[in-house]
Amino acid sequence: MSENLKIWNQCKQPPKSALKRIVAGRLKGKTDINPQWRYQVMTEIFGPCGVGWKYEIVRVWYEEGSDKQVFAFAEVHVYIRENGEWSDPIPGVGGSMLVTAERSGLHSSDEGYKMAVTDALSTALKMLGVAADIYAGAWDGTKYITKEVKDKPISNEQVSTLAQLITETDTDSEVFCNHFGIDVPSNLPASRFAEAVWGLEAKKQRMANAE
To answer: Model confidence over 99-110: pLDDT tens digits?
Structure first.
């Protein structure tokens, strides 16, 4: 085992008890991960929060969407402590809903920012390998998924969505491909489509905020 993958391999596979299948919405069919498990595995590896690992909320903000909906966003930095020294910040951006348009009208949430912070933490902790096998589409909580399923390419519609986001964010296609280990964007594995879209959407949001 590579020493560089030591932490990654310690936290890449969440137990079945920490997983829940999403049954509705745009993420239907995907797997939801209990945030408490993420914090538990970080504590197991590094020690208590604030001692062996910690995070800071860099900023929170909101953006208006369609139909008078409002999105909450958060940016966090995660730090780990090794050999008595704190690491460089590991950034993460996440989002949730503050105001949602429902059949009965607009619904406000008093947990929008809290959920955005939770989402941002999950994004940052991905970089350490937390629940990596779920995001890679390699583990369903009970068994490893075959290579044929895991490596299924994205659909033509997803290719178009990806191309549009790459253009809108002025992203270097070569850099994008190198990050995902592919030769062209259309060869992106379907299991990593959500991850790619989220990253590009976050970049798009940062660009909009900078204007």
So the answer is: 888 778 888 888
